[in-house]
Amino acid sequence: MPRMSYRGYNDTDPRLHPGYGRESRREQGGETLARVINVVVGLVTTVFVLHVVFVVAGANKHNGFVSLVHQVAKALVLGFGDVFTPDDAKIGVVLNYGLAAIIYAVVGQLIVRALRRR
């Protein structure tokens, strides 16, 4: 027969204790931050992919959306915008912005994993 406490619930079953299953604020904060980082990294890599597609497809640079994507991508590429300098500018954009997207994704996932291990 299970041991009963003075409150009338089974002391040996942790699921029956008040607060079971609740994460601490610290754990909740870490998970929330991990989700935010995932979203931000997803948005940044999407901007890079759109920029590459627009350049390769020869999109109208005077279009508002294309121009916005170009400006945001240029601001976020940091030092990766001129790592490769091939003769063809389109190949340079594919390589440089592709590299930046990969680095953002890898670093973002490493940070998320570190936050979720805590």
Automatic annotation (TrEMBL):
It comes from the Bacteria. The chain crosses the membrane at residues 32-57, 94-115. Keywords: Membrane, Transmembrane, Transmembrane helix. Residues 10-27 have a biased composition (Basic and acidic residues). Residues 1-27 are annotated as: Disordered. This is Uncharacterized protein. It comes from Gandjariella thermophila.
